[in-house]
Design a protein that fits this description.
homotetramer, 393 residues, alpha/beta, eight-stranded mixed sheet, seven-stranded parallel sheet, 16 helices, 15 strands, 17% strand, disordered C terminus
Chain lengths: 393, 393, 393, 393
Amino acid sequence: MPVLRSVRERFAAQRPLAGVRVAVCLHVTAETANLVGALRAGGGEVALCAANPLSTQDEVAAALAGDEVEVHAVRGEDLAAYARHVAAVAAGEPQITVDDGADLITALHAGEPARRERLIGGTEETTTGLLRVRALEAQERLACPVLAVNESQIERAFNDRHGTGQSALDGIVRATGLLLAGQTLVLLGYGATGQGIAQRARGAGAAVVVCEVDPLRALAARMDGFEVMTALAAAERGDVFVTVTGSRDVLRAEHFERMRDGAVLANAGHFDVEIDLSGLRALAGDEGREVLPLVRQFDVAGRKLNLLAAGRVVNLAAGDGHAAAVMDLSFASQALAVEHLVEHAGTLEARVLPVPREVDEAIATLKLSALGVTIDALTAEQQRYLTSWNQRA
Amino acid sequence: MPVLRSVRERFAAQRPLAGVRVAVCLHVTAETANLVGALRAGGGEVALCAANPLSTQDEVAAALAGDEVEVHAVRGEDLAAYARHVAAVAAGEPQITVDDGADLITALHAGEPARRERLIGGTEETTTGLLRVRALEAQERLACPVLAVNESQIERAFNDRHGTGQSALDGIVRATGLLLAGQTLVLLGYGATGQGIAQRARGAGAAVVVCEVDPLRALAARMDGFEVMTALAAAERGDVFVTVTGSRDVLRAEHFERMRDGAVLANAGHFDVEIDLSGLRALAGDEGREVLPLVRQFDVAGRKLNLLAAGRVVNLAAGDGHAAAVMDLSFASQALAVEHLVEHAGTLEARVLPVPREVDEAIATLKLSALGVTIDALTAEQQRYLTSWNQRA
Amino acid sequence: MPVLRSVRERFAAQRPLAGVRVAVCLHVTAETANLVGALRAGGGEVALCAANPLSTQDEVAAALAGDEVEVHAVRGEDLAAYARHVAAVAAGEPQITVDDGADLITALHAGEPARRERLIGGTEETTTGLLRVRALEAQERLACPVLAVNESQIERAFNDRHGTGQSALDGIVRATGLLLAGQTLVLLGYGATGQGIAQRARGAGAAVVVCEVDPLRALAARMDGFEVMTALAAAERGDVFVTVTGSRDVLRAEHFERMRDGAVLANAGHFDVEIDLSGLRALAGDEGREVLPLVRQFDVAGRKLNLLAAGRVVNLAAGDGHAAAVMDLSFASQALAVEHLVEHAGTLEARVLPVPREVDEAIATLKLSALGVTIDALTAEQQRYLTSWNQRA
Amino acid sequence: MPVLRSVRERFAAQRPLAGVRVAVCLHVTAETANLVGALRAGGGEVALCAANPLSTQDEVAAALAGDEVEVHAVRGEDLAAYARHVAAVAAGEPQITVDDGADLITALHAGEPARRERLIGGTEETTTGLLRVRALEAQERLACPVLAVNESQIERAFNDRHGTGQSALDGIVRATGLLLAGQTLVLLGYGATGQGIAQRARGAGAAVVVCEVDPLRALAARMDGFEVMTALAAAERGDVFVTVTGSRDVLRAEHFERMRDGAVLANAGHFDVEIDLSGLRALAGDEGREVLPLVRQFDVAGRKLNLLAAGRVVNLAAGDGHAAAVMDLSFASQALAVEHLVEHAGTLEARVLPVPREVDEAIATLKLSALGVTIDALTAEQQRYLTSWNQRA
């Protein structure tokens, strides 16, 4: 994780978090240990609990605890123990929260007001967590600014376009053994992830068809050279279908009924609602049968439809999920977001805020350096020119 | 211009501009006549003057005048006549202005306050015009909302990425006769236009190198698979250099000195300041010599550098400029922006405002229809799902 | 023409054609003058006549004549004069012929046998010329080896895939002003030229559909990610149709009848027979009307079909034809083919022969050098390994 | 395996192998059972032994034996048993051999001449096997024609360009977890497999650099838009190195010494000789250490180099190897090659022969049909045109 390592080195030199109590509620893994290390190098006093008891790696927890971090996490702890651990961290009256699902910050908001008096702000990594924080905001109960790390420009590019763009196709190939060349891949959704999948599928020799409900995205897909049509029309054309819309029932009975024998159905969206499983089961009249470890086959009117990973997000369920390079940028963004909150303590609105552009730029600069890429800087004269329109007249 | 034709047909049926005085200051060409036709079909009372006296097509002016449009434009009119014509249109106390360079709206702001009392709003098509309007806004003198048509999402995509992306390369090939395959094309600037050029140059078999000052754009280029380096390093590598940054002196003496024999220099940015011509002349010690109609060759330390179109924007100077398909969307956007201003008269802030997303969506929908593309719509259930986060928990 | 220049320099040093009488029948242009210069540098005694009287540039002819070349060519000469000129060159009893259409070598074969007694061999640059030479071969009348320069690997790549690939699309855009992005381009024929057009059209944002009669090429197109279908099905889908098959009536009445309003028809094949013009005129009931200089519009059942350049090869008729880089390799190939014939005089069969791989390799090496590209060489150990299968066991 | 299934259905109807004794020496797997099924459907009397004792699936062997096929294969049999089994099949005096490594046909040639008296011909699937058969041919000892199935056009395209093109990158990503976007991938070798890898790596956002020793391939890579340089220069640039040349020591000490920290080394060529492992060990001074299951890390002058799969072919060693779609075409090619040998019994030379184009065409036609793609056929008039050059004059 070279970018996070750079952040840590600067933090160690500058100590921007000196004396700040940072509470972290993340999956307790080696990557999280690296983030905790960076926050501590910056002077933060870190307490840690698990965002999900099943993902806790006890050896990581032990190592951190031995390293003077307050750790409240045990692999496989039950829900009561999990809640106690979150509560214990909240009881420390943290100034900064780092969340993956918003359990910690919502716990602080559910508890006594005193607990959140010293709160400077928080960061959140997931779509689900942001939905919860935004609900607090809508009720005018949010007590501090929360930076939407997973909506930053760099996250959209790395996590979605490149990270999931690569790993979703990987997952499909690993589950099925398909040769992508020669296949017609129907992509439902042309957001950042969809664009990443489309580009890669084309590079792999697939003919890509895009379905969209947003006319701007549909037009963008068309101008990028992809065929665009309704899902009903595409249902008759596709060999592989990939949903990545954020919506539900994107593929449903009317589509299943039109699909060709052997069609493959995969979901690359966050939730497992994009393919209507109950509709599929109803059409098939049974639960299907497992033909490969991650492939369940349904008979629909004599044609075989192959559902991957039970409709769960295919890059995690059938592939390796996010590459280390993606996690590196996410966690480095978290660290710089924390620094930004501390630096601007008391001046930011108590709302869900975008990650500021300077954080994205700092991450991009560090990543370019990690890639060995050097870029230009504006000359003084260019800076003057760009800030003074009179010169152009 | 199928999209503008669709707008016109709806305008004729709905008359959204009935009785509104619309003053138009554009190049007086057949395309503008189409826009005027659409505005009039919508019920607008249109007056027209030329954004540039040299581009006036007298037969278009005559036809419009015969068609009950108030026209103040004569091809080749001198500056005094030009100013009188703009003033005459301003004197009509227009409610809506449509500008290409902001001459009309600044005339209204320079004149007596009474003239702009009935002003509902304006639209502006160019970067230069927006700079002028924003200067008014910065001085808190802007009297009405102005929609930045050339910054709309659809304009960025069509005009920049696709329109200029295609025509800049066309211009270079026409001026030089180069075979792009096998060339190293150095692209200075990776905004929408730069991205469009990069994609097309790669498709044509060129190896593309990107130079940037913005780390986010530099990283985007790198993740798109292009090599990224400083302009100094690229100077030694390139066969063809294309500037498209919006800045000045992007290529200058230090770069010219490193370039290979036969290098080609082209600018695809709006102004002719991106290649430092005086620096080039100073190095060469002369004005160069014309070796082809649009190619001027300079000797720099025994190597020949070929400057295209005197550093002016190469897609206009050496190619055909914008395709009709691009103009169609620009003018349809103007028409819908005018409708939006009228529909929201009195409710918009007196600032430079982005074109609202619904206008972009309407244009995209019409364009898809013109391309014969049909897309999906959200089901009622999907709409509910997408507006209610509770369903996702 | 850097590659031909390299050849000339080596020829000047090595004099491989010393004293050989070389007769050249090509378009009398500046490029041909360069080839003649290289042949003379190699020691050849060159006589020149025109392959086509219309293309003769008299000043080139004069300059060559002043340069001790025997020139028989006058711009616009009538057919009788043309024949006399070819005959005059043939009368010189050349040892080597260089043809573009086979007029010279067929003249030698039609004349007295004595004329071809000293003939070592010939080269031919065109498909048409090869058809004529192969007819001689089929009749067992061919008196010397003829190298098929236009079928060499390097010619297929440069001339077809890259040269025509680029210039055919250029020609279409120049004639029509189309924005390729968003268009469906139907490509009839997926040989080297078709592949080059497909790649570039995709890079420009077009959706490409391929039609083929050869199952291997059809499958290759499909595995490259393009949609493949019959021309009848494609007729309903395309915005732009490009024929490049070498066959006739590839687009005919049954296709015209299904095309959409506004469809564009272009031919990139050698002969103007690929689009059935008489069928188009019959359907339209007239000769169509010229709507742009190179665009003739036909009404077919209420839909407008736009024929480019009267169905003649669109890259020459509407574009700039071959880039100088392509001519450079063609003429350098001619020069090395001549050297090969001289070097192997008396040892080659009197047949149409492929250009030997070593000539292609020599051209590729010179071209890489002109591009500033350096490549690896096999080590002695690698050469041993590659020639001795026993080491691999 | 839809293509092989089509072949089987036709064979069942036409019985082209009726009464012919076919001896098969392949990996005894489910795919091979399908091939055997097709040969038997065609009327062949099939005997089977294993090309490799370790790959035998005993249940497949049992099922085939139960199906009246003569099977000589036991999983894990020792070398003596293996040889006995091959000999047993050879003793049956087969008329046709189907080999994967040439063990069967060389056994027939090593034995008594009587054994090969009735031999009609053989097919061979591997590079290694062909080397052995060609050695026989060079010694003028080859007794029958052998079709080089693995050199057919369809095999080059599917197996190499598309099959290995996809699976080599899959293997690298699975072994390392790398995000390809933003990486510089150095590809040593630009044959069919290299081209397939290059295209896919570009689609995945990698910057691709090509190294070649063949100037024609180097130039092709350059004209396809890839950077081309020597391996020494590339050594300093690459993040990921992939060898696919067929040669040895393509990456060796002089390259390792220049590589950047973290470089990844993978081989996609058939043999594990392309990366000089002993040179790598010598530089590092040790055997390296396993940092991930398929990644061995070597310290070279303070920089870490990561060798994948011990330099063995990465698509098999770290990925899933050939997709079923690739095996389908290979085995269908085998079946049609056998049919071709029988059909032309006694008329083919006793040499290694290319698979005839009609077999490739038949396979392509069946594959297109399996993909649901329909293509055009020449009209009678077009056929006349294409066979009669006189029409073109």
